[in-house]
């Protein structure tokens, strides 16, 4: 067998694992595919014969690629929501490819992906690699350029945040109470009430269509998000969005803008603003008031 074919065969044996790692690091199937392809390119240029543990080597390479992508993403605040909203949030109808469906089934849920997206890149990497894929802290520390103990601390901080998401307010009544209170505070311009409802690290993101009509592409932190909503949302109404409490502006009964909320520990940790007509058409939306 030709050396290139032999190497490609060995790589394919690890592809599914690498794609799962990349997806949970990035929350985007297309970006995960890009990361895996880049890992293949790096492998094809490396001296693979000197690699004792190819699976571990490839996991490290993919993790470093994803870390670079996360850091690049964090530095581009002007980038619209479309670029990195977790795919499951707005594309359930697109998940028709069996491999893609299997990847999503093995991955974390949307609420958790959103919470992961609020973590610092190093925290996300440490948590995903250790807690989801049992990568030892020695290896994680090497990827991050930190000690194993520092990597352990990063994972611990991330785990506390993620555990809050796992215990998120999935009860519809509690969800509705939080969103209803948020809308009321927004309409009344009650900045302090908005702050009280928002997690300190809350993230607001908008798709490209929403930014066209004036929404911020991305905001981070409770003061910034509260300021963007204070005195606004006058025409937004409480709604069920894919079964979860949300809000919508739907003049004449036709949804024009939808707000989805991720809630954990009684606090809003993420708000996504969707206005793309195609995306809105895929949502199961019910106006409640």
Account of the 3D structure:
The chain has 289 residues and is an alpha+beta fold. The chain folds into two domains: 3-166, PhyR, sigma-like (SL) domain (Butyryl-CoA Dehydrogenase, subunit A, domain 3); 172-287, Nuclear Transport Factor 2, Chain: A (Roll). It has 13 helices and seven strands. It has a seven-stranded mixed sheet with strand order 2-1-6-5-4-3-7, sandwiched between helices. It starts with a helix and ends with a strand.
Please tell me what the overall shape is: elongated
Largest sheet: 7 strands, mixed
CATH class of the largest domain reads Mainly Alpha
Superfamily at the CATH H level of the largest domain?
A: PhyR, sigma-like (SL) domain
Strand elements, count? 7
Count helical runs.
Answer: 13
Strand content: 5-15%
Rg, Cα atoms, Å: 20 Å
CATH architecture of the largest domain: Up-down Bundle
Write the layout of secondary structure elements.
Blueprint (H helix, E strand, L loop, with lengths): L2 H24 L2 H17 L8 H22 L22 H9 L3 H9 L2 H13 L3 H8 L3 H19 L5 H17 L2 H7 E9 L1 H5 L5 E3 L1 H8 L7 E5 L2 E6 L7 E8 L2 E8 L2 H6 L2 E3 L2
Parallel strand pairs: 1-6
Antiparallel strand pairs: 1-2, 3-4, 3-7, 4-5, 5-6
What's this, in brief?
Helices cover 57% and strands 15% of the residues. With 289 residues, it is α+β, with helices and mostly antiparallel strands.
Essential attributes:
7-stranded mixed sheet, 289 residues, Nuclear Transport Factor 2, Chain: A, alpha+beta, Butyryl-CoA Dehydrogenase, subunit A, domain 3
